[in-house]
Specification:
Strand 3 (136-140), helix 8 and strand 4 form a beta-alpha-beta unit. The protein has helices at residues 6-16, 20-37, 39-52, 58-79, 87-93, 99-106, 122-132, 146-156, 170-178, 211-219, 252-273, and strands at 94-97, 112-116, 136-140, 162-165, 182-186, 196-201, 204-209, 223-230, 236-240, 299-300. It is built from eleven helices and ten strands. The protein starts with 5 loop residues before the first helix and ends in a 6-residue tail after the last strand. Strands 1-9-8-2-5-3-4 form a seven-stranded mixed sheet, sandwiched between helices. It has one domain. The relative contact order is 0.16.
């Protein structure tokens, strides 16, 4: 467990003493103002939504974009409660759907790969898994600001989870799986061309980490999805899906792409169901395949294999 440094501990304590409903109201107002004042992220969200949902009218897309900003505000407001959460408090706010899928996968004794996305409240999701099931080793991209990095990492680790920076993650993930532990990855962000593979996400090529697929192929650990869906009353539903069957033909490169596509399809299905709970401000499609017959970029169509 990571200890709070004095400066981050004081800030977390200060925010935690503000009643949650007031904190939420302030953050929602700030992010609503950000939606109107930050033209770059507002337009990026609307552009992404227009390409993902070309059939939807503009007013509906605007409502989804504003909802996504509101969701980010609530994630930020609730973040400061994490160090004080207990199993009992989590059970008061979170209902679990699919616990049997977690138990079945964990019972295989080969470790467990749990994947998700920046959806709903992904911070609470990691906490709920650690308190309701068992702590996990999760991979993240460090923040550029040292103070924010210390703050976020200490809060995320406060309930027993182990935060591992992406560039130093492989050895610790393999060790966790060998010890029948749980490894968590969010696989919905853009990657550069050298480190990711191209799969379809909302009908467009999206450069995606194939680390989850390669880990599963190398270790035989079962892979299951998990998402924290925000309910209208402000509580949550932790949705744990069935194990995603792994395609293993022996062609490691192709299998990595096919499996990454299958995992991405699970994420897309949930985002389509709750579009205002995903991070549309992210430049998910920034990296694109290089055109031309000499390109090494390979794109796996969304409906090729299961």
């Amino acid at each position: 467990m990571t200890e709070h440094s004095p400066d981050t501990s004081a800030l977390v304590s200060c925010f935690r003493h503000i009643p949650l409903h007031i904190r939420q109201g302030v953050f929602v107002a700030l992010f609503e103002a950000g939606y109107h004042l930050d033209a770059r992220h507002r337009l990026a969200s609307l552009q992404n939504l227009k390409r993902a949902f070309p059939e939807k009218p503009v007013p509906e897309l605007v409502a989804i974009a504003r909802g996504a900003f509101r969701n980010m505000a609530l994630v930020a407001a609730e973040f400061f409660d994490i160090p004080s959460l207990t199993t009992e408090r989590i059970r008061e706010r979170v209902e679990v759907e699919g616990a049997e899928h977690y138990a079945a996968a964990a019972g295989k004794g080969r470790g467990l790969l749990l994947f998700g996305a920046h959806f709903g409240n992904w911070e609470f999701q990691a906490v709920a898994v650690s308190l309701l099931f068992r702590p996990l080793t999760f991979v993240y991209r460090p923040l550029d600001n040292p103070f924010l990095e210390r703050l976020v990492t200490s809060v995320r680790s406060s309930t027993g989870n182990i935060a591992v920076p992406t560039k130093k993650s492989m050895r610790q993930m393999l060790r966790a799986l060998k010890d029948n532990g749980t490894v968590g990855l969010l696989i919905d962000q853009n990657w550069n061309r050298r480190e990711g593979v191209f799969v379809e996400f909302f009908g467009r090529p999206a450069c995606t980490t194939d680390g989850l697929a390669l880990l599963a192929l190398h270790t035989g650990a079962p892979v299951i999805p998990a998402f924290m869906v925000r309910k209208p009353n402000g509580h949550y539903r932790l949705v744990i899906g069935e194990e995603v069957p792994l395609v293993d033909t022996g062609d490691r490169k192709t299998d990595a792409i096919v499996n990454t596509q299958n995992f991405t399809r699970v994420i897309e299905a949930l985002v389509r169901q709750y579009p205002d709970q995903w991070l549309w401000v992210h430049r998910r499609w920034q990296t694109q395949p290089q055109p031309g017959p000499g390109s090494r970029d390979r794109i796996m169509p969304a409906l090729t294999r299961n």
